[in-house]
Amino acid sequence: MDGKTTYSQEQLHYLRLLSRQYPTVQAAGTEIIRLKAILNLPKATEHFMSDIHGEHEAFLHILNSGSGEVKEKLEELFGNTMTQRDRNDLATLIYYPRPKLALAADENEDLDEWYRLTIHRLVDLCRYVSTKHTRKKVRGFMQPDYEQILDELIHLAEEGGSRRDQYENIISTIIETGQSPAIISALCALIKALVVDHLHIVGDIFDRGPRADIVMDSLMNAHSVDIQWGNHDVLWMGAASGSRTLVATVLSNSIRYNNLDVIETGYGISLRPLSIFANEVYKDCDTEQFQVKLTNTDPEQYTEKDKLLSARMYKAITMILFKLEGQKLLRRPEFGMPDRLLLDKIDYEKKTITLYGRTYPLLDWDFPTVDPQDPYALTEEESHVINQLTDSFRNSEKLQRHVRFLYSKGCLYKVYNGNLLFHGCIPMAEDGSLLKFSIGGKERSGKAFLDYAEQTARKAYYDKRGSAERQFGMDFLWWLWCGRNSPIYGRDRMTTFERRFIADETTWAEPKNAYYTHCQNGAVCEMLLKEFGLEGEHCHIINGHVPVRTKKGESPIKGGGKLIVIDGGFSKAYQATSGIAGYTLIYNSRHFRLVSHQPFAGKWNAIHKNDDIHNESVVFEKMETRMRIWQTDEGQDLQTRVDDLMMLLAAYRSGAVTEDHHG
Questions:
Q1: I need a labelling partner for 322 at 20 to 30 A (CA). Which of 343, 354, 382, 397 fits?
Q2: Mean pLDDT value of segment 152-174
Q3: What single DSSP character describes residue 474?
Q4: Which helix (H) or strand (E) holds 228?
Q5: Per DSSP, what are the bridge partners of residue 447?
């Protein structure tokens, strides 16, 4: 470009705006040099986790350890100079600095010397793991109060002579002023941030385990994270949006699995309206089919009265749920699920139900709130209870904060550095074609349908309260949760009703979408990747949702290596099925590494006994050469920035844009 006339008006407008940030040739040139240096750094490490299901202790341990990345770095740096026991102790300190520091204060006779040695080791490790990052980026990970001290320590440590003396003096001063615990904690946080650059959560943060709210708090503190919504996540998103159906679903699930801590303690939602209603209306009812699971707790701590109240509450909210689901299906025929209208299929005199051409006796027919002539109508008391509970979900400040975060950092799918991330499936027909949906008045499939689904899911939370758009969005979130062939549910139907009321287990089946058969074929995976604009040797589908039955020989690597299933298996309820506690994935500049985890023995054992989660690591795909940032999505953005700045330099030199040396 040799003259002003070679620039369009749009280009000149953009270049003049850019010149405000880089007002001289020198400023633009310096930034180009900086960006090109970044482009040639190794690709940063990505950490993939899925299906956390509220198991906050196991999640936090795997998060803190980077699925073994921290220990691997300790082994590389200190393998020949520290004992295994000392490396384990240092690893646990990095994972849990506060409680480990408290133990050290009790156990070490010469605490100052322990502080000195520990700071030396942590600084050395910081230097080692910071080599893939620019100094500016490393400073960005530091706690603001200690940024200058940490920066000095890291960069003085490698120098000799008087600079080395300065380094030792800083450490001595830290110890003398009582700042050692704070500095050690800050170094531990920095190491974890440098070891794993970006975190992917591939769905299902909520339900089953005790404290999904603690998981959410930690994700909100992560320096770089994205989330692909799972069906259990959209369930809570819908409840927070004001969907009575999804509030009833959340409560039914939580009572069923005796998982009320997250509701009452985590989110401050009182269940008193439900308990009063259940004790009054269901006090003389049969609740045998609504016994609560006590697998995650000590059954001895619950009296028979407690168990009876839980069963009454479970039955009361589940009957409300069945009615609300029926209302939704009648209101939304486009969901194509008329066969899931069940309360009107009951013969209330014969105590039977007719489904799919067969008649079954009911295990429970004691329904005090159901009008056989209008089975989907809520009683006045039921309406009052569910409205109160829904208001509580809408008014929980902490829940609303978490759901806003899910919307801001979340999506149904993500394309990132050559990989396609989603929780459940890309719905497919039996013949292997992409399944077509007519929801929304237009036929869509594949990427187009997922784009529509995500846009509609956002309407549930962001559109005007009371509007038709918001109501449809909330109804659609319910469909995403359990609808036929939903991309994050991936099954034909959810048989909650059958499991409660019909003894014949053949009615309990929840057939999977054809995706789960076809995805075993590498060519199908490549077709799906291409649907989302991805082609190439190192492109993969990464999803969770379905536990990998490892004990039966099933592999998490499918489709000729193009599909990786990383269902985390965190939930204790699923570990009997999988045989392990699931998988996580590491993708760094050199390889893809799949990590299988055994169940976590608990935080106390980790802190006091250095009991780490036992895992096995397999590198299943290596890069031909070490991957650089210029080969990543971030690199493409940076290269675009370089190209723009090169254009600005040319514009300065040609006079099309004038430098401002006084800016």
A1: 397
A2: 82
A3: H
A4: strand 225-228
A5: none
Q: How far is CA 115 from CA 85, 125, 176, 194, 317, in A?
A: 18, 15, 11, 22, 55
By CB neighbour count within 10 A (0-12 exposed, 13-18 middle, 19+ buried), where does 466 fall? exposed
Give the CA distances from residue 546 to residues 144, 361, 575, in Å, rounded to whole numbers and listed in that order.
Answer: 41, 32, 12
Triad 547, 549, 551: Cα angle to 5°:
145
Dihedral sign from CA coordinates of 164, 166, 172, 175: negative
If you ran DSSP here, which 8-state letter would residue 428 be given?
B
Cα dist. 403→199, 409, 458, 475, 483 in Å? 18, 10, 11, 17, 21
What pLDDT digit, counting tens, does each position of 237-267 carry? 999 999 999 999 999 999 998 889 999 999 9
Is pLDDT larger for residue 591 or for residue 547?
A: 591
> Which residues face 424 on adjacent strands?
none
Instruction: Compute the distance between CA of residue 257 and CA of residue 240 in angstroms, rounded to an integer.
Output: 20
And the tokens for 443?
């036929």
249: exposed, middle or buried (Cβ count in 10 Å: 0-12, 13-18, 19+): buried
Find the range with the poorest average confidence among 128-142, 148-162, 180-194, 412-426: 148-162
544 touches 203 (CB < 8 A): yes
**The residue to which tokens 């330099």 are assigned:** 649
Contact present, 45 and 645 (Cβ < 8 Å):
no
Three-state DSSP state, 499:
helix
Does residue 323 contact residue 341 with C-beta atoms inside 8 Å?
A: no
Smallest Cα–Cα separation from 427: which of 453, 460, 407? 453
Q: Which residues of 385-394 are buried (b: 16+ CB within 10 A; e: fewer)?
A: bbeebbebbe
Phi-psi map region of 602: left, alpha, beta (phi>0 left; psi -120 to 50 alpha): left
Average pLDDT, rounded, for the chain = 91
Q: Output the pLDDT for position 578.
A: 55
Contacts of 281 (CB under 8 A, 6+ apart): 316, 368, 369, 381
Q: Which of 175, 254, 173 is nearest to 207 (CA)?
A: 254
Q: Kind and range of the H or E element at 44?
A: none
